[in-house]
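Title: Request for sanity check on F-box domain-containing protein prediction

Description:
We are preparing a figure and want to confirm that the structure record we downloaded matches what your pipeline produces today. Could someone re-run it with the sequence below and paste the raw structure tokens into this thread? We only need the token string, no images.
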Amino acid sequence: MSMSMSIPSLSLPELWEVIIGFVDKDTDLKAISLVCQCFTSPAQRGLFHDIDLSVGTSKPHAIRLDAILRESPHLIPYIRTLGISNGHARCYEILAGISWTNVRRLTLYSPLFPEGNESPEHVKRLVRIPSLRSLEFYGSQKSLRYIVSVCSPNIDTLTLHCLDPSDDDESDADALPLSRPSIRDFSLAWLDSALPDFINDALDFTSLEILRWESHPPSDLHRFFTEYGSTVRKIDMGITFESEQWASFDIALYFPCLKLITIRHVISSHTTSMLKRLPLDNGIEEIEFDWSLREPTSDDDVREFETAVLQSLPALCRVKFVVNPSTWKEPNVQRRFPTRKSLLDDRREVFPRLAREKDGGLIEVWFGQIKVE
């Protein structure tokens, strides 16, 4: 009796590309690129995918990168993310002169305009790269005011860190932005002050779908939530401290279309109280936690959390615990969790009611991007 089996068709070069795509160490990729001609291209894609000029002095790195790309222009489309820190004016000039074709993400670290009158114009060329979709910014409000007024209309993802308002003289406060990018994914991380008003003038948040914030209690973002929360389907909350504001935070009031909640760092009585405030007709389908593995949650908080989830979230399909692989490698953590399977067993034991709910249970554990089975 013969049996036929359908196997996906992959040529040998395609198969090697898939395999090499799992290699992430630069030293290994450099070695692989020298093995044979068919390995060179996929290895170079991995090597040049992320270019970070944020370590040390960026000027000599920019000069070296420019020389490499001039000699091998076929590498330019391989570069998808670009990071620049404390850039010398000459650094921005060099990078702005490269014909970027495939950069999707740009990260700028302050100080953005350290010297030279021409630097802002070169920065403008970088933030208007046609392929750019994501911008991450560390720095002052003055620099950010300029950036958002000139950035590419194609940007739909924006991350802001540590905005220092001290040097924002608002001299160009009335200047109209060149375009108003429609932001779909917006992140606020460890801001030193409230969100500046000019953000609303320069950017369009009416189609916002994903909102992340770190450190700030809800009251600091009340105005932004009120104006733009109605279209948000996913929120990611960095609850890093115990605050009564979390217990009284009315998620449904601000985010009526919410489907997914990510809570970082803490399962506490305050986060449980926040869930209990939800109306029973909410459509939340998933709760995700960043699981640090270091400190166990107290039994009382676990029981209260389970009860709140089962009573308040009728549409829930999964409770997802995400483990950072680098955290798992720590010796004291590995003694507690010797295998990936032990991670899943622990969550099922700690949250027994969630593990039994809805046939296969609601509990999922993810090791980075890999689901633990």
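Thanks, this matches our download. The two ends are 34 Å apart (CA to CA).
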